[in-house]
Design brief:
Two copies of one chain form a homodimer. By secondary structure, the first copy, chain A, is an alpha/beta fold. Helix content of chain A is 41%, strand content 18%. The interface between A and B is large, with 63 and 63 residues.
């Protein structure tokens, strides 16, 4: 099974590393990171410097395509080469999946038109504007399209795909090997679990960054 | 706050990226990855190619030192330069933390002598052999030493440190920003939650890989 994961400047690293840590453990999996243009990219905050195995032009098929998010995904939404590559690669996949705002990138490419999908909680309305039907759930599936909510949800998505692709024993072994028995010290991982003021402040901050990234991307083209 | 995270060939990427994704969001945090020797490293399965900001000789202090695990941590356990660097850096830290088998590396450096700590479930006995007192909990704290169980437990560790360092509002905002509201499709993330045969097979496989890595490291020196 060939798993291809897009990485790019401004990626949220956990969006990709969560499902990678699960899916790369599937028996027979070949997991490859690919990037548009230069193959060395930096995460959203600059701290992770990461080199892809190949650039997107060198990769023309995948069994599973994985599209993570981050502020850089917003910039790629107006990049016609990346959108065309996503559409072309999707023609070859058994499964096409996104994590966080990776769904916005898939939607911008037209692949989620009229389909149910999810994304980071602060972008569900944006997903609707791009023609998908947003669903506020942890993992959403519509045909071969699988999407996960924000950042850490990619681990749950990875496990649900592992369960589907390789069965219960293998998925259990993977979950135990990464000791995924979550015990967060607080219960604040969903917008309905925090106070309205904190939620609104975070929403405003995230959307402001996104607006700036969209404006920069528009200027550059 | 200067956060320094060791990376190395054979790292389990999620061990580092989990707490990174949490702790790099702390207001005022400067998060830096450092590596021993060559600064470009590859993850345990080779798929993640990652370049550190600096080599360990260039970094002589940290407020928070983070030591992730993976098969490569086993190789470093017999590397005197790395063990000396850990001890020297620890003299400067407010907090010294490990994820997964990063605890074995800290223990090999002598820093966990007589201290309570945890590690990946398959290595709790090894942690005891190295002079620490193993505790089978998700996150364990002894003085300034904080340790997390296997791989994904680093996210919980990161949040507990964020709560301690920056308070509840900030920790909640970080948890919501990474939408950490875990919903694994199976409940197999802890050794007591799976069948004995699956657990034993996985234990044997992991320990066999570890034994081979230890033998290779011994030969090399």
């Amino acid at each position: 099974m060939d798993i291809v994961c897009l990485i790019f400047d401004g990626i949220t690293a956990l969006d990709a590393i969560g499902p990678y840590e699960v899916l790369s453990r599937l028996p027979g999996a070949r997991f490859q990171f690919v990037a548009p243009g230069a193959t060395t990219v930096r995460s959203d905050n600059g701290a992770v410097c990461w080199t892809a195995e190949a650039s997107i032009e060198q990769v023309s098929r995948a069994d599973l395509l994985l599209v993570p998010g981050g502020i850089g995904a917003r910039r790629l939404m107006s990049n016609p080469e990346v959108l065309a590559w996503l559409r072309a690669l999707d023609l070859t996949t058994q499964l096409t999946a996104s994590v966080c705002t990776g769904a916005l990138l898939l939607a911008a490419s037209g692949l989620l038109q009229g389909r149910k999908a999810t994304t980071h909680w602060a972008f569900l309305d944006t997903l609707r504007e791009l023609g998908a039907t947003p669903v506020a759930e942890r993992c959403v599936r519509d045909g071969k399209y699988a999407s996960a909510a924000g950042v850490s949800a990619g681990i749950d998505l990875g496990l649900s795909l592992a369960l589907e692709l390789a069965g219960r024993d293998t998925a259990e072994a993977i979950q135990l090997s990464i000791e995924y028995d979550p015990q967060p010290p607080l219960d604040a991982g969903s917008p309905d679990k925090v106070g309205a003021a904190l939620r609104q402040a975070l929403f405003d901050r995230i959307r402001k960054l996104d607006k700036r990234a969209a404006a920069e991307a528009a200027e550059r083209r």
